[in-house]
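Fold this sequence, please.
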Amino acid sequence: MDLNFQSKPGKFVKEILDFYIPLLVKVPKLRDDPSFMKEEIKATGKSGLTDVATKADIYMQEEIKKNILKLHPEWEFWGEEGDDANKDIESNKDFLFITDPIEGTNNFRFKEDDYWGSVIALVDLKTNEPVLGIVAQVVKKRLFLAVKGEGVNTIQFDKNGVKKVLPIISSSNELTYNNSPHFEDHYLKQVDKFFSLGNILPDDPKSDEIEKERKSVMIDGKKFIDVECGNLEPVLFDGGIMFKTNIEIASSFVIINELGGKITDAKGGKWSMSIKDSIFARKESDWKFLKKIYDKTAV
């Protein structure tokens, strides 16, 4: 198995990985430098847990932006942090490059290293369709890469670049939901309705601060967990409900579609610039179950 893609988006993979992998290797070490762990608080939850962007998030985004616009100044750029998240998208360009440089920043801060990553997506602005998705599980030195129409792979990497190309990993049979500190009131009400559909499971006595904030719920015999790792969730788990997401979910749209699964917005529609919620699953039957659960949480 190799990375010899034939499509136009596939031809961009090598040049992206050539700058992206060295950044991925570097980012865990940034936690050792206090200057990179300075925080900008974006929201505070009811328990006091904050949603933040660290200087490491901002550094990673700036480096990704610098590198991709050097290669493709003709592309549009969107990033999760700062002004790059609030700009108007110029739809007359060919491609929109999207990144969430460190997704799951609280997990990054608290060293919950299975559950933070980095995300890149490429959207064809002529069709308004995601065509390339990359989701990195950074500390494990692997990333999940999909090109529309050309499949999905697991790529192991090290400081020298791509080490091995493997089939996509199997998913856990757990389901996920999200309940983030940055939720507005209507999302908080929606999550409360979600909790009312089942039973909140007791905390593990060994749980740390961040794990106690995130509740596991049993609904109709299915266990839902809250890991807050965004685009890693569709790769690692059988399915889930994202009560709030953003356009960076484009990456998962490519990956799940190439896996033969189902991922939609909350109404069952395609990815769009205005996407707010998402439902995803490896199996159609799980997607239908999750859609019914989501519909019961409407406020």
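The first helix runs from residue 13 to 26. The longest strand covers residues 95-103.
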